[in-house]
Amino acid sequence: MKYVYGPVLSWRLGTSLGVDLISSNKACSFECIYCQLGKGEGPVVKRSIFVPTKELISELESLPPLGIDYITLSGCGEPTLAANLGEVLSEIKKRLKQPIAVLTNSTLMQDEKVCSELSLADKVIAKLDVPDEKSLEKINQPAPGITFAAVLDGIKRFAAEYPKKLALQIMFVSQNKEKAAAMAQLAKEINPIEVYLNTPLRESDAKPLSANEMQKIKKLFFPLKVVGVYDKEKSEVIPMEEDQTEKRRPRRKKQ
Ligand code: SF4
Fold first, then answer.
1. DSSP 119-150
2. Phi and psi, residue 69, nearest 5°
3. Which atom in ligand 1 lies closest to the alpha carbon of residue 76?
4. pLDDT digit string, tens, across residues 74-116
5. Were 28 and a residue from 8, 78, 186, 248 both cysteine, which residue would form a disulfide, CB within 3.0 to 4.6 Å?
6. pLDDT digits over 51-81, tens only?
7. Is 109 left (phi over 0), alpha (psi -120 to 50) or beta?
């Protein structure tokens, strides 16, 4: 398998089959300080085709029946950078009945074409780790030209147009934990269907917050529906090919 990995047990989505529209070197418009993929060759902002749709679909068609809850577009970078995102979503929809989620860093959501492609998914999990420009520079290290205001505007516009599809994901590390109250306020303004609160429990250069710290943060988001990374059991699902899965999803750190 070159483009499909897992299934993995996702604390957000249950048993999930990963589909990677990047699948080679990391390509992302951010360089987050906690990225489990490590450093890439610099941020990428231009959309292009990394994986031919036909090859990806024939890989999906070759799979045996799998008991999965979700198909998730994620992997070696930012899926909205793939210019064939919409085409791939439509082709998967024609063939498989499971709902599709896309994990995005939200940087291209100001682009109407990207939003209309994303709307083909059943759930769009948009990253928003910070409430201001300075923190975006510090935590997410965006490509030149990407601003906090534009990212937030893109998320809000998508939420207004597709209110039943948008979930938010926030990664907390020591560098943004003081911003938790401001993040909760922002999340309430956006009003997503769910908020996923994460901290890097997998291999990463950043240290995770403790379960206790995350629990305190979670309370700030009431009354939104919130799922925290510590809330779910740490059981694992056996992937079809371990190396292809670990490339995109490193193992959990020992705690
Ligand atoms: S958005 Fe995701 S893939 Fe991109 S740098 Fe951040 S953590 Fe890594």
1. TTSSEEEEE---SSHHHIIIII-PPTT--HHH
2. -90, -35
3. 3
4. 989 999 999 999 999 999 999 999 999 999 999 999 999 999 9
5. 78
6. 999 999 999 999 998 999 999 999 899 999 9
7. alpha
Residue nearest to atom 1 of ligand 1 (CA): 105
Domain limits, the chain: 4-248
H/E element holding 195?
strand 194-198
Distance from Cα 2 to the centre of ligand 1, integer Å: 20
Class of CATH domain 4-248: alpha beta
Ligand 1 proximal residues by C-beta, below 6 Å: 28, 30-32, 35, 37, 77-78, 105
For ligand 1, atom 7: residue with the closest CA: 35
Q: Which residue has the tokens 């505007």?
A: 153
Rounded (10°) angle between helices 148-161 and 180-190: 40
C-alpha 31 – ligand 1 centre gap (Å): 6
Read off the tokens for 131: 């409430």
| pTM of the full structure | 0.94
Q: Atom 8 (ligand 1): residue with closest C-alpha?
A: 35
In the numeric block, which tokens belong to residue 57?
A: 């679909």
Q: Which two tokens stand for residue 14?
A: 């249950």
Instruction: Give distance in angstroms: CA of 65 to centre of ligand 1.
Output: 31
Cα(64) to ligand 1 centroid in Å equals 30
